[in-house]
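Example S7 (structure tokens).
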């Protein structure tokens, strides 16, 4: 009987030592980032100087590895075969000199008002959004709003950075707003008191 009590006490001590502080915490933990892509950085590329050794004479090719909006990586290779002077560094930069965008930031169409700022657009309307999604070719954000007061079929070229055109049309019993983009983006839609804010990512 004494031996049984000793064994029970020994098991109690062992269980106490092995017990977890939180019994609802899993014993096994998933590896970090196993099903997640890397977060995209929001830092814009600045000028980068690339210095080559004094033996360099011909630049044969450039290989650039970039990250997509879904986190995947791709590589672009450019064949050059151009003579260079090693005394001067190569400069990697983004050039916006050739880009000309309209300065107008506010547009009205069929009872909707669109206010643009950087990578965001605010759609001012009292109508409720039914759904929103992306359509390709051309790449655009589509927003459907309930309620029709009149038939509309309008299109407006806005020519801004990130945003190219706005189209407003009627589909069955709802309005459809299509905002054409200048490239492929993820987006976030936020409902506000007097409309909807779209932020591109």
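Recovered sequence:
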């Amino acid at each position: 009987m004494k031996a049984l009590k000793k064994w029970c006490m020994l098991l109690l001590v062992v269980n106490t030592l092995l017990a977890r502080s939180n019994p609802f915490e899993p014993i096994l933990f998933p590896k970090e980032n196993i099903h997640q892509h890397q977060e995209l950085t929001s830092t814009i590329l600045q000028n980068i100087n690339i210095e080559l050794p004094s033996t360099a004479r011909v630049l044969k090719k450039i290989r650039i590895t970039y990250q997509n909006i879904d986190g995947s990586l791709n590589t672009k290779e450019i064949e050059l075969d151009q003579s260079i002077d090693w005394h001067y560094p190569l400069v990697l930069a983004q050039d916006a000199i050739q880009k000309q965008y309209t300065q107008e930031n506010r547009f009205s169409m069929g009872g909707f008002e669109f206010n643009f700022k950087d990578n965001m657009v605010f759609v001012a309307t009292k109508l409720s959004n039914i759904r929103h999604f992306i359509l390709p070719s051309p790449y655009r954000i589509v927003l459907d709003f309930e309620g029709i007061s009149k038939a509309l079929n309008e299109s407006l070229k806005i020519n801004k950075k990130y945003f190219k055109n706005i189209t407003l049309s009627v589909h069955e019993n709802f309005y459809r707003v299509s905002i054409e983009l200048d490239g492929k983006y993820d987006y976030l839609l936020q409902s506000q008191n007097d409309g909807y804010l779209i932020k591109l990512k």
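Notes on this example. The chain has one helix and 14 strands.
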